Amino acid sequence: MSLPTTETLVLREDGFVLHITLNRPESRNAMSLQMTQELRAVFSAIAQSDSIRAVVLRGAGGHFCAGGDIKDMAGARMQAVQSGNDEAYAELNRAFGHLITQVDHAPQVVIAVLEGAVLGGGFGLACVSDVAISLESTQFGLPETGLGILPAQIAPFVVQRVGLTQARRLALLGARFNGAEAARVGIVHEAVADSAALDAALDTTLAQIRKCAPGANRATKALLHRVGHEPLESLLDDAARQFARAVAGPEGAEGTMAFVQKRPANWAE
Fold first, then answer.
1. What is the phi/psi pair of residue 154, to 5°?
2. Do both 133 and 72 map to the same domain?
3. Same domain assignment for residues 192 and 222
4. Rounded to 5 degrees, what are φ and ψ at 10?
5. Does one domain contain both 230 and 181?
6. Angle made by CA atoms 261, 267, 269, in degrees to the nearest 5
7. Contact at 8 Å (CB) between 242 and 223?
8. Is residue 201 in some structural domain?
9. Are residues 177 and 89 both part of a single domain?
């Protein structure tokens, strides 16, 4: 596996973990079209990787992501004026939707480490992470309606994350709130007091992932995504067949033997 060259992202492999740092600190890591494209290229590159089991997303300079890039929106506005239609706006907005769907369905465990600003597109990325860890002081928000626009690509994922009632309140008020509130409503799983605690929470999460069989984790994530989209009985039938294959497969055999022998499984070493 080879990772693409990126300008807006810093990539670092550390064992089974790929660390992706959004690296536009001068704009609080605003999500430019280039960053969107580079993130999609990275997630495409690792989609079939057996060695990368977890992805850590965080931002440079004390912020996660402050939303969409104003320069890109200005460029789309100029293109719309010149062409006489608003397809440039739609294409720019939809590009982020493709990214967020791709991150949502990535086979790896995606961990969002959140601090500073988590707004708009950054909020959307937080909502498709498998594990979200935040500082209590982090500022979250869906500011779109206050700007006269819609959280168009983000809204479905916010509903999936926190339910329709909370999503209505967050999107229709556009209010800012901190990491403690984000934990209360279910956007993040843990909110901690300081950077040292944030790094410790990340280390604990990665240690837990290390103990999980990589193939079983991938299959479990894919199974969870099917819930609510397929008839329950046929889904359970297929899940039973997957369970049987897993029990008889190499991970099932190793996991059982490791348990009996009271030792870590080979994927946890």
1. -90, -35
2. yes
3. no
4. -110, 125
5. no
6. 75
7. yes
8. yes
9. yes
For 185, the domain range is: 9-210
Q: Which of 52, 46, 56, 51 is nearest to 3 (CA)?
A: 46
User: Tens digit of pLDDT for each residue in 240-264?
Assistant: 999 999 999 999 999 999 999 999 9
Number of domains in the chain: 2
> Rounded CA gap, 11 and 3, in Å?
8
The separation between the first and the last C-alpha atoms of the chain, rounded to the nearest angstrom, is 22
DSSP string, 129-195: -SEEEEETT-EEE--GGGGT---TTTHHHHHHHH-HHHHHHHHHH---EEHHHHHHHTS-SEEESSH
Looking at the DSSP bridge assignments, the partners of residue 65 are 118
CA 208 to CA 56: how far, in whole Å? Answer: 14
* Radius of gyration over every alpha carbon of the chain, rounded to an integer in angstroms: 20
Relative to beta strand 139-141, strand 177-178 is: antiparallel
Residues 166-210 have pLDDT tens digits of 999 999 999 999 999 999 999 999 999 999 999 999 999 999 999
CATH of the domain at 256: 1.10.12
Are the C-beta atoms of residues 201 and 107 closer than 8 Å to each other?
no
